[in-house]
Amino acid sequence: MANFKGHALPGSFFLLFGLWWSVKYPLQYLSQKVNKKSHRIYCFQRVDAIEGGIKIIFALIGMLAEQFVPDGPHLYLYSGENRDWVKLMNWQHTTMYLFYGLSGVVDVFTYISQVVPQGLDRLMLSVAVFVEGCLFYYHVLHRPMLDQHIHSLLLIAIFSGACSIMLEVFLRDNIVLEMFRAGVTIIQGTWFWQIGVVLFQPWGGPMWDEKDHSNIMFLTMCFFWHWAAAVAILAINYTLAYCCIQRCRRGSGEPYIGLGVRQQKRDTSSQAAFLNGSDEE
User: Fold this and answer.
1) Listed residue (189, 10, 32) closest to 97, CA to CA
2) 76: phi > 0 → left, psi -120 to 50 → alpha, else beta; which?
3) Which of 124, 132, 182, 242 has its CA 20 to 30 A from that of 163?
4) Does residue 263 carry a pLDDT above 70?
5) pTM of this prediction?
6) Are 233 and 186 in contact (CB under 8 A)?
7) Among candidate residues 23, 21, 8, the one with its CA nearest the CA of residue 51
């Protein structure tokens, strides 16, 4: 959809997933750092399957919205006597949602079947993000300068995410790569909203001058403000997850992460006292 809603819808999906990942992966990493219980690992795998189902639902909503809005193509690719293309922009968005839906299907099958190779879910997600980037690269070709530039900034986040997710295929459960993925997904979400606001002015006001170079300079700077905000969100959510894990461990009487060095010192001192007692005997 070449309007504000067409950018707000995928932006909301990406933002929700990015925020969720920024909470999920710190919890998973910190809870397994000290106490690697099998039932906790199984619990997070089950969450991955639920996440895949939600991804499928979001993809279906996106595809239906792109095809069946009043001015949508309604599943027609050609139309008219001249066999003209029908709403190719909507078809490109539909293709993007299709690949994210396939990623969700692979997530579910990875959980319910042991036959699926490990890492295939990350590979499919990387392919989906890469397809999104290719579609958007040719999406704005020969468009006005401002339109091209604001979408090209989005490509930075998209292809960065595709590369980091591809690394996750080989570096499974790497917290740095997972947090980076969460960050670039948040950026995608907020920047989709920014694109919609700049190009379509949903709340009124003068339209942006597409030939003014100052607007391009500001939007470039604004993009990295979005990046800084995403980093701040990651830091806050990681800190909150750490505090939550520590509080739960104190309440359950389990050793918690912050006492690792102290526990080691205590074990060393008790061992020395035991040896001294043995010498006296």
Assistant:
1) 10
2) beta
3) 242
4) no
5) 0.84
6) yes
7) 21
The two tokens of residue 7 are 């950018």
Question: How open is the CA angle 220-224-226, to the nearest 5 degrees?
Answer: 115
What per-residue string of b and e applies to 264-279 under the rule 16 or more CB within 10 Å gives b?
A: eeeeeeeeeeeeeeee
Phi, psi (rounded to 5 degrees) for 78: -120, 150
CA 140 to each of CA 56, 130, 163, 236: distance values in angstroms, whole numbers, following the listed order: 27, 16, 22, 35
The answer to whether residues 47 and 70 touch, using CB atoms and an 8 Å cutoff, is no
DSSP category for residue 78: E
Give CA–CA dist 246/259, Å, rounded. Answer: 10
The residue with greater pLDDT, 274 or 54, is 54
For 57, other C-beta atoms within 10 Å of its C-beta total: 12
